[in-house]
Amino acid sequence: MAQEDVHLDDAGLALGLSLGGGGGASDAARQGTCSRLSREPRALEPSLTLSMPDEATATGSGGCGGGPSHSVSSLSVAGVKRERVEEADGERASSTAAAARACGAGAEDDDDGSTRKKLRLTKEQSALLEDRFKEHSTLNPKQKVALAKQLNLRPRQVEVWFQNRRARTKLKQTEVDCEFLKRCCESLTEENRRLQRELQELRSLKFAAPPAAATPAAAGAVPAPAPFYMQLPAATLTLCPSCERLGGPAAAAKADPDRPKAAASHHFFNPFTHSAAC
DNA sequence: CTTTGGCTCTCCCTTACGTCA
DNA sequence: TATGACGTAAGGGAGAGCCAA
């Protein structure tokens, strides 16, 4: 799936929705070669460390005060699947991680390694992450390490945050799309009813009136306003092959003024060139 | 040139923790 | 105080691309 599908408006909503699984294709391409610069065997040490916010630190063991002020107490859990390249480089960006190891890795409640403490990001951390996400919904390895350093987090934590943030964005967009389709369905249902009534009238007029008055206009019928999907040439109402959405930016914008403009402009599919802008 | 194994990435689903009503 | 709902950090699997052998 192309990551470029995720676009942000001012509200931070993703405006493009891509359906279907498989994320690796263009993702790797976007990464380019920079992600491979420091490819080395992964660190095999069990090194999951979880930073805890201030309050947790205050209640934790007093000897763990070596980290930054907002995330100092950490917990190491065995069985981590992998450590990222930049973390294996020996340049542990987070002093949090170092503090965790120095602090005996949360010995107070991690006897068997089965419990996992959960990090709560501080408001400042969340705000900065949010800002960066608005700029780019993905990070290259360099950006990730830099941001992790800035936030006193591990690159892996930054990566996970972005991953979860993308998921939330996509979920929101799915809800928006769902609502849009619902309205579309309602509109179609209503239009179908209207056409059925019109057909009924025409049939009755056919037998009751002279041929000259056999049209709704001639009979004085007031035509209902055409639904939004009928205001487009049929050729533009094409399902986008990549996302399977009904095409036609004008239609989308007319049908749902609340829908963000960028979203409405997506998924325009030209049936002649077979290209989609989604 | 093709194949293959190892590596990375992201996405997706799930789990589990922290918070709040 | 106990509890269920909810938000979210993190674990782990799967699929895909890249690279070297």
TrEMBL record:
Q: Where is the composition biased (Low complexity)?
A: 93-106
Q: DNA-binding region(s): which residue ranges? A: 114-173
Enumerate composition-biased segments (Basic and acidic residues): 1-10, 80-92
Places the protein is found: Nucleus
A single Gene Ontology CC term: nucleus
Q: What are the UniProt keywords, alphabetically?
A: Coiled coil, DNA-binding, Homeobox, Nucleus, Transcription, Transcription regulation
Tell me which residues make up the Homeobox domain. Answer: 112-172
Record region (Disordered)? 1-117
Q: Which residues form a coiled coil?
A: 171-205
Chief place of localization: nucleus
Q: Does the keyword Cell division apply?
A: no
Pfam families to which the protein is assigned, alphabetical: HALZ, Homeodomain
Q: Does the keyword Translocase apply?
A: no
Please name the GO terms that the record assigns under molecular function.
DNA-binding transcription factor activity, RNA polymerase II-specific; sequence-specific DNA binding
What PANTHER family does its record include?
HOMEOBOX-LEUCINE ZIPPER PROTEIN HAT14 (PTHR45714), HOMEOBOX-LEUCINE ZIPPER PROTEIN HAT9 (PTHR45714:SF34)
| Family note | Belongs to the HD-ZIP homeobox family. Class II subfamily.
**What protein name applies here?**
Homeobox domain-containing protein
Species annotation: Setaria viridis (Green bristlegrass)
